[in-house]
Design a protein that fits this description.
86% helix; Methane Monooxygenase Hydroxylase, Chain G, domain 1
Length: 217
């Protein structure tokens, strides 16, 4: 016989593992997007693979994890106090994956058109992408720490606050640089879309970090 408290503890462990899996998958997807980012902004070789196809495979894995999360939450019912927080955290990963997919699709278009970014745009966009990666890694580490060290989890989450502020300020600079550039309208719109989606990704990571802090209480 499984008592309610035992059932709740088991579900909490399962939910934490599922969230850790999804956080890891988001970082993995973003790493693949960075392959194109680094090619466009830093001239690094892109290799023979197709990052967008690889990202879609990771998204499928993430969707399966989300399905498992919802199944766990539906089975535990209302006895789990943090049920809604876990559901929101799970949904936030889907939002991050959506942003990463949009960013990658726009980068693929930029690469296909062989557009060359100005030095300031390449530097600004490169810095934004690096900050996005830092935020995702901190989120992953924060969720990983939830299972054994709540203070550490909260500490990582607080670091995301500072990263998100830097990303917001940098976005304003980069966006202004793009709209004032003497390039055709398609270039401006697509590059702005990438910058805007990077900023949105930072917001989504920040919102997820707030949920981690709630779960750490």
């Amino acid at each position: 016989m499984v008592f309610p408290i035992e059932s709740e503890d088991r579900t909490l462990r399962n939910l934490l593992m599922l969230c850790q899996d999804n956080a890891r998958l988001v970082v993995e997807a973003y790493r693949k997007s960075l392959i194109i980012f680094d090619h466009i902004t830093k001239g690094k070789p892109i290799g023979s693979g197709d990052p967008l196809i690889d990202i879609h495979k990771v998204i499928e894995d993430s969707n399966r994890v989300k399905t498992s999360t919802i199944k766990e939450l539906s089975e535990i019912g209302g006895i789990l106090v943090s049920r809604d927080d876990f559901l929101r955290l799970s949904s936030s990963f889907s939002g991050m994956m959506d942003s990463i997919e949009v960013i990658t699709m726009r980068l693929v278009e930029i690469k296909a058109r062989e557009w060359k970014l100005s030095k300031s745009q390449a530097e600004g966009m490169g810095n934004m992408s690096d900050l996005g990666f830092d935020a995702l890694v901190k989120l992953r580490d924060s969720i990983t720490s939830l299972g054994f060290n709540s203070e550490k989890a909260t500490s990582y989450a607080k670091e995301i606050d500072e990263i998100e502020k830097k990303l917001d300020l940098l976005y304003i600079e980069v966006d202004l640089d793009i709209v004032t550039s003497k390039r055709d309208i398609a270039y401006i719109l697509i590059l702005r879309d990438v910058a805007r989606e990077l900023e949105r990704l930072g917001d989504k990571v920040h919102e997820a970090s707030d949920l981690v802090r709630i779960l750490a209480l």
